Amino acid sequence: MHSDTLIKRLRNAAHVAVLTGAGISAESGIPTFRDPGGIWEKFEPQELANVDAFLDNPELVQGWYRHRRQIVEGAEPNAGHRALVDLEQHVATVTTITQNVDDLHNRAGSADVIELHGNITHNYCMDCETDVAPERVDEAIEQGEPATCPECGGLVRPDVVWFGEMLPPDAMDRASQATTDCDVFLSVGTSTVVYPAARLPMLAKESGAYVVEVNPDRTPISGDVDEYLAGPAGEVLPALLS
Ligand code: BV8
After folding, report:
1. What residue's CA is closest to ligand 1, atom 31?
2. For burial by CB atoms within 10 Å, which of 20, 58, 158, 202 has the most?
3. Are residue 206 and residue 128 in the same domain, yes or no?
């Protein structure tokens, strides 16, 4: 259960930054990466979420992302996403830094979402960078061939950050700014193992923020945060932020 200190800190905060991971979308029915039954249980990250795997077998990787995009399209934001939107009524600045590529924070209505790892609903050509409609990917996959660009014939990829790829520089800069500026930092639903995003909670602590973790399981930072709140985001956040 959360402390009175945290409630007071939230009430007096001018800026709250939130880092979210796959756990906040679990209650929307989107499988996480590393939980039992999660996405990586069937595939290893290096098998699919990297450019070599993609070039090696574009159709497999395009098909995997199409499958995940269909899950996302059928999902709705949950009480955890909505609680972060409600927080914006009480705190002047709320920055939602997400590792998720599922677009659910945008669809919930959060005002300032920083997508560190991109967005699965967007695709583009690897060669000429033209935006490509997801329907074109779906058509090609259904015909059993890799999706190619209508302009130059290049391979189409999802607009997500793969392992070994740089995060969008402006996104990482803005996330670091918010992390060092905020009064309270919430780390919600992330196993805190993927860098450089995983560095942000401790950067917030080093910068003087009050750092709170919301996760049913402990992670590598649980012993170092100011408060570890054990529980699902869809229950803990509404109780905390109501
Ligand atoms: C880069 C997008 C360099 C694609 C993803 C050794 C040490 C440090 C770093 C490295 C290293 N070796 C390699 C690296 C770098 C690597 C990395 O960090 N690897 C890790 C695995 C060791 N990082 C990179 O490659 C990054 N790029 O470093 O570039 C560079 C530098 C210069 C020039 C060129 C390159 C890029 C990383 C981004 C990879 N892309 N996703 C896609 O989605 O397919 S990562 C993927 O995992 C997700 O995006 C997600 O963000 C990330 C972390 O997963 P989580 O979100 O935390 O999800 P997870 O399932 O793990 O955990 C869920 C949590 O929720 C659990 O704790 C669970 O308990 C909890 N939970 C469950 N239910 C609930 C809940 N919580 C709340 N409520 C619930 N109901």
Report:
1. 166
2. 20
3. no
ipTM: 0.94
Q: Which residue owns the Cα nearest ligand 1 atom 76?
A: 189
Q: Which residues are catalytic?
A: 117
Which CATH number belongs to the domain containing residue 240 in this structure? Answer: 3.40.50.1220
Pocket test for ligand 1, best of 194, 200, 215, 218 (most atoms within 8 A of CB): 194
Q: Which domain holds residue 102?
A: 1-30+77-117+167-242
Q: Say how far apart CA 218 and CA 131 lie, in whole Å.
A: 40
The predicted-structure confidence for 3-45, as pLDDT tens digits, reads as follows 889 999 999 999 999 999 999 999 999 988 777 777 666 777 6
**pTM of this prediction exceeds 0.90:** yes
DSSP assignment of 135-185 equals: HHHHHHHHTTS--B-TTT-PBEEEEEPPTTSPPPHHHHHHHHHHHHH-SEE
* Ligand 1 mean position, distance from CA 77 (Å): 21
Say how many domains are in the chain: 2
